[in-house]
Specification:
Elements lengths: L1 H61 L2 H24 L3 H23 L10 E3 L6 E5 L7 H4 L2 H7 L3 E4 L8 H10 L4 E5 L2 H14 L3 E4 L6 H5 L17 E11 L2 E3 L2 E5 H5 L9 H13 L7 E5 L2 E4 L3 E6 L21 E6 L4 H9 L6 E6 L1 E6 L3 E6 L2 E6 L2 E15 L14 H9 L15 E3 L8
Parallel strand pairs: 1-18, 2-3, 2-4, 4-5, 5-17
Antiparallel strand pairs: 6-7, 6-17, 8-11, 8-15, 9-10, 9-14, 11-12, 12-13, 14-17, 15-16
Helix pairs in contact: 1-2, 1-3, 1-11, 1-12, 6-7
């Protein structure tokens, strides 16, 4: 019975790969089939429309006044003109059908690749004793007041935790409060707040090797998402106090400043410094970006990531483990947070033509994706403006970024939603091999089976 089930899975995998390739071929041929020479011209017009739109967006971001207004109009007019052209030639349905075929090709391809064992393994979970003296720091204003709205203080106290509410009306040294809690005997540090607050408490937890409990009470909760926590129900994160397991998780550092997600240099690092940014993100960015993108303001950066060197990028993101960039469905997510490497994203665009090439060219020279264990950000200035987990900071240059592998013991609920499903990397070459296979293919399941152990003597997780 098991053998028959496996063989059916192999067949489904092969036929899904074949369906993906066939749909992609039809999607490319359909405009030529029904449009002939007109179809070819329409494809060229579509590409030109994309290029003009990208160039216009660059002008809108890097200019002010009438030029910005004209560029904004052009960014809207270019795709609309292509649409009008399609309607006038009565080939709009061809584009719609071709788009549907592309969607079918991607869906079938992901289905085929999902069963090849290429998806990352889940981190190991460790069964450990329930904490006896947990202390949780809570920011009442974080996430628009989630602490009060979800009754987090009351729920934590019911489960035996001591809650420290941060004073929203004055500056609080969160790291000092966490260290004091450890000195007073806390055997778990929890934090209900934004990613920046979580990073400060995480550094103290890592320093003293006590577990960290993350409550998704922030606005975006990126770290909580990559830990597999429920971002819609922060109170469920507290279940880890009574029925939890531990994960080994990496922690990033920019100089001596910890980060759980990322640190940004260049354009975003400068924009986030503005006092007006919190109230008007778009308006503040539009006001500052022209000078930042044209390098009239801000230092010129040089980034050294391993053997690679990035010269004068306008924006750099260094992350605690790399973000997915190969698939739109995976953007903003990390496949793992325990891989022991930093992710590096660098962007350099100096003209409208380069902006268009960034969108259309197969090799995007202005967009750099790297991984490294250490990253050094140099500048022709003594200090660098940065955004550390979304919080404004000024760091002495050069900034040495590193990753502390498995530095964090993170306690999470045993039952939780899990990391949102990220599709496997889409590879046409792999699909061709699967489609051509006549025997069994590499069906090995979704991930490596999870192992639970009692205690932590077995070493760090995968």
């Amino acid at each position: 019975m098991g053998l028959e089930t496996t063989e059916r899975a192999h067949r489904a995998q092969r036929w899904a790969a074949r369906a993906s390739l066939a749909a992609a071929a039809l999607a490319a041929l359909l405009p030529l089939w029904f449009g002939g020479a007109t179809g070819v011209l329409l494809l060229l017009a579509g590409a030109a429309g994309l290029a003009v739109t990208a160039a216009a967006l660059w002008w809108a971001l890097s200019r002010r006044g009438p030029v910005r207004a004209a560029a904004a109009v052009l960014a809207v007019a270019a795709p609309l003109s292509v649409m009008v052209l399609l309607v006038s030639t009565r080939l709009l349905w061809v584009v719609a059908a071709s788009s549907a075929l592309w969607a079918l090709a991607l869906a079938s391809g992901r289905y085929a690749l999902r069963s090849t064992g290429l998806r990352p393994a889940r981190p190991r979970e460790y069964r450990t004793a329930r904490p006896r003296r947990p202390v949780i720091l809570m920011n009442p204003r974080s996430g628009g007041g989630k602490v009060g709205r979800h009754g987090l203080k009351e729920r934590a106290e019911q489960l035996g935790a001591r809650v420290v509410l941060l004073d929203a009306d004055r500056h609080v040294d969160v790291a000092a409060l966490a260290r004091q809690a450890v000195r007073e005997g806390a055997d778990l540090l929890g934090v209900a707040g934004g990613d920046g607050t979580q990073a400060l408490v995480a550094a103290v937890a890592a320093e003293h090797r006590v577990p960290l409990l993350v409550v998704s009470a922030g606005t975006r909760n990126h770290f909580a998402m990559d830990l597999g926590l429920d971002r819609e129900d922060p109170a469920s994160c507290l279940d880890a106090l009574s029925d939890g397991v531990e994960l080994d998780v990496d922690l990033g550092f920019a100089g001596d400043r910890p980060f759980v997600n990322n640190v940004s240099f260049g354009a975003y690092g400068a924009v986030v410094q503005s006092p007006a940014y919190r109230e008007d993100k778009v308006g503040t960015a539009l006001e500052l970006l022209p000078d930042l993108l044209s390098r009239r303001r801000g230092p010129r950066l040089t980034v050294r990531a391993g053997a690679a060197v990035l010269r004068e990028p306008q924006a750099v993101l260094v992350s605690n483990n790399p973000y997915r960039t190969d698939d739109p469905l995976g953007l903003g997510r990390r496949e793992r947070v325990n891989g022991g490497v930093l992710g590096v994203l660098g962007l350099r665009v100096d003209s409208a033509a380069e902006a268009a090439a960034l969108l259309l060219a197969p090799e995007r020279e202005g967009f750099t994706v790297l991984t490294a264990r250490t990253v050094v950000v140099e500048a022709d200035a003594a200090e660098l403006e940065a955004g550390i987990d979304g919080e404004a900071a000024v760091l002495a240059a050069p900034v040495h970024c590193r990753i502390a592998r498995h530095a964090l013991r993170v306690r999470v609920p045993r039952h939780r939603p899990g990391v949102p499903g990220v599709p496997p990397r889409f590879e046409w070459r792999r699909l061709r091999k699967l489609a051509a296979a006549v025997g069994r293919t590499a069906v090995t399941g979704y991930d490596v089976p999870r192992r639970e152990r009692t205690g932590r003597g077995a070493g760090p997780g995968a």
